[in-house]
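Lab meeting, item 3. Inverse folding demo.
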């Protein structure tokens, strides 16, 4: 899960660079836009599903003290969705018009907003939720979660 968080940060930073680096080549913009859109529409969605379907219900039962943090996590996922959709739409449009400065600026501005929201969200998970998983869920349950994560990705 922590590796996923690093990828979230990486693709968010890449999206910011798409919008802020003025001397980027069109081919680089197209490639970076494709990579970021694919990550946000596929991998990030799976990560959210991992948290909401595999971790949240088990941790809520095992450690009721985490309920407010789990509620915040799922609320934040919902709050991120419109910005993610907007960013992905900008990235799709940029693939067709990589030199369009206003599209690049829109993608960058949205990515900057998401970056701030993601950092708050990731910090919550890294400081409260993930340590609670280690503390409150048995190794067997943790293995079950890992197996579910892998199955979603067909690893």
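The presenter then showed the designed sequence:
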């Amino acid at each position: 899960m922590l590796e996923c968080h690093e990828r979230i940060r990486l693709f968010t930073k890449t999206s910011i660079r798409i919008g802020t680096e003025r001397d980027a080549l069109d081919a680089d913009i197209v490639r970076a836009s494709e990579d970021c859109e694919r990550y946000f529409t596929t991998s990030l969605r799976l990560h959210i599903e991992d948290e909401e379907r595999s971790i949240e219900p088990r941790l809520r039962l095992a450690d009721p003290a985490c309920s407010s943090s789990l509620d915040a996590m799922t609320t934040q996922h919902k709050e991120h969705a419109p910005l993610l959709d907007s960013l992905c739409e900008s990235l799709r449009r940029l693939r067709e018009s990589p030199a369009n400065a206003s599209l690049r600026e829109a993608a960058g501005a949205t990515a900057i907003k998401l970056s701030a929201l993601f950092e708050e969200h990731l910090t919550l998970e890294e400081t409260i939720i993930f340590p609670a998983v280690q503390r409150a869920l048995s190794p067997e349950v943790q293995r079950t979660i890992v197996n579910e994560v892998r199955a979603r990705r067909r690893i």
